[in-house]
Amino acid sequence: MPVQPAGLPWLHPSFQPPEIQVATGRKILQCGGGNPKISNTSIIRAISNQNANPKQIISLFTAAARQRGFLPDLSTFVSLLPFLLRHRRIRAAELLLRRFPIAGQRPGPSLLLPLASSALTAGIPCDSTSRLILSAHPSASAFSSLLRSLLRSSHLTLARSLILTAVPDDLGFQIKIRHFAGLVREYCRLGYVNEAEDLVVQMGRKGLPADADTYNALIASVCDHCSVDRGFRVYLAMADIGVSPDVITFSTMIGRVGMQGWVLGCNCLFGRMLVMGALPDWSCYRILVGVYCKNCCLSDAIRVLRAMKRDGFFDDVRMNSILDCECEDAILCYVLKSGIIGGLMG
Predict the structure, then answer these.
(1) What is the model's pTM?
(2) Are 66 and 31 in contact (CB under 8 A)?
(3) PPR repeat ranges (predicted)?
(4) DSSP assignment, residue 245?
(5) 58 in a domain, yes or no?
(6) Contact between 66 and 40 (Cβ < 8 Å)
(7) What is the number of structural domains in the chain?
């Protein structure tokens, strides 16, 4: 009759491995002295048996680990750890992960990805899953790869838990702004504005203030899913903490403010952009012309088109000569026929 220990006896030197049987009842080893009799392949084969249960597999691995010269390889861990998590043996998996670096290997994506997937499938809480994964001390590249995979599969809660639970001194590498930024942008893409704003606050508390790219995504999402007023408050908060707005920041605000019909606000933002040394690009001019045309400020639109000519954005000789014309009606007629305004607004 097989012995099925409740814990993980390979951690205790006094344990003597018993006779082990697989789920079919077929005897596969009689431990004793001599060379190893259980291979990594036999463990993987036992795990793949649909009738196998956690106690039997733990007993099998225990017996193998007590053999002299036995060294579990990566494929064994990749099979064993997800198997334990699918059966909600979290403590067993955690203790096994702590042994993993002893095998001379650091866990990479090939282990962490199926580990996270199995935990999610088994319904294990994200906090427990993140602690389990971090207990393996993954490398910086493996950690980043896992985060990217979680974002692609929309497992944002686990990604958030991993980032906020990680302690750099334990990991051996620093959590960087890009780790947070990817999650913030994904929250913004999905319209989870409150979660995105809260994560930006958490970044500041951890001494990693969000950069301009992160704020740009947040401002656009707040304006689109909440209100332009709230988005403007985010823009002000960005400046208050010392993050300099760039041309994308101003273009985003000009576009959203302009859609509300606040032309004066657009003018103020454009002036502020120039004062701060952020030079308008094609997209910025495109948005500004669209705002003026939408709000029937055609003289202002022509003024912007002439500024674009001055800055070298037009290489069409005919367009350049028309913009030199003093007659605004002639300019508008040509611009409308040529589709320049439509292209800029589209």
Answers:
(1) 0.75
(2) yes
(3) 176-210, 211-245, 281-315
(4) P
(5) no
(6) no
(7) 1
